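Quarterly update, task 2.4: shikimate-3-phosphate-bound model.
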Amino acid sequence: MASATHTQSTTRVISPARTLRGSLMLPGDKSISHRYAMLAGFASGTSRLSNFSTGADPHSSLACMNALGAKVRRDERTIEVTGTGGHLHASHANLDCGNSGSTMRMLAGLVAAQHGTFTFVGDESLSRRPMERIRKPLEQMGARLTLTDGHAPMTVHGGPLTAIDFEAPIASAQVKTAVLFAGLQANGTTSFAETIRTRDHTEHALRAFGVELLRRDDRIYIAGGQKLKAIDATVPGDISSAAFFLCAALLFEDSNLVLDSLGLNPTRASLLDVITTLGGQIKVLEVREEHGEMIGTIQVNRSRSLKGADISGALSAQLIDELPVIAAIAPYTEEGVRIRDARELRVKESDRIALVVKNLRAMGAEVTEHDDGMDIPGNQQLHGGVIDSGSDHRIAMAFSIAALRASGDTEIHGAEAASISFPEFFDWLDELAVR
Ligand code: S3P
């Protein structure tokens, strides 16, 4: 049975802006919040997680950890989690992951070594997303996964696991995390090799909780039977949420944006290179490291006319969450943007290639769709249009940014989806946009 959450559809009207100015401290990174929630719930002792993500997705992870026996207390943006000391309780109720693929895939790895059966459900979108990718390694280790046509509802029959050496067939940090979380509890040393280096928050988070890991070239090794100890941590600001305002700042010559305490992990920061290629100027005002994660303050302006970009290969995998907003501002560049090797976009919260193409056209843009990407010519003036978010948070936000330079107002249908990762988005956009 799919999760029963139904949210009322809301429409937001976005008017064109003259420029974008201001300074912000973004809510905690979604990816890091998920990992801290899960590992804190698995560790011994009480962890204190400040600036935890305000998005609905990481809160799905917290709710699942609570159902698995962890105690979760909330005090505004600080979350206290008292862990289970490595013994998760098989829950009779379904584990409701809402819209969150990260929750379902990563948590499957954590429960795979635990005694009992664990049934995961999600909303309509999550129930369409591929889960085979985690079944293969987890079954090789000794767990059994029952899927529904390759999707959720998904039941994990946990039990003692044996270490494996696994070669990632696709670039996926979620699959890597599922394998490392299972390997942490397996008999022997598990290794995971990835040819495209995906975000490494799991590696940093595991080390923060006291786990030893080794990386040699493109392979990570984790010995089973290690214990985790609670931590105090502050989650860095979410660079994928910042991406919307960074791209908005590119749209106006006299924009100025300062982002404080932003996550600058190099496996997530390729966006900053693209911003510079396109014509942005980024000053790093301060940088520090906490629990292996780089955090800093950056200032962004537009320094020249907007050029274009070609995004393919490993870069597409590293920018996977940012591609919708890069595509949404592409018509305003001089040379356009070409995206390839991004087939994974088709199996995100929506088919993000199809929806980006449809919504760009709704605003009057010319665009060519490819199986694994799209070509968006530059020098196009968009008009206001009616946008279908497809209940996908990143589509709702990406087209709100495109709307800032359009002629006329744009209606974003299904705008409430933004709250999956960034509930403050529309209020903050209103504050930053100068009209
Ligand atoms: C994530 C990994 C990526 C990304 C998702 C979050 C993570 O998914 O798109 O938003 O936190 O590990 P894949 O692992 O499917 O590439």
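Highlight for this quarter: The two ends are 46 Å apart (CA to CA).
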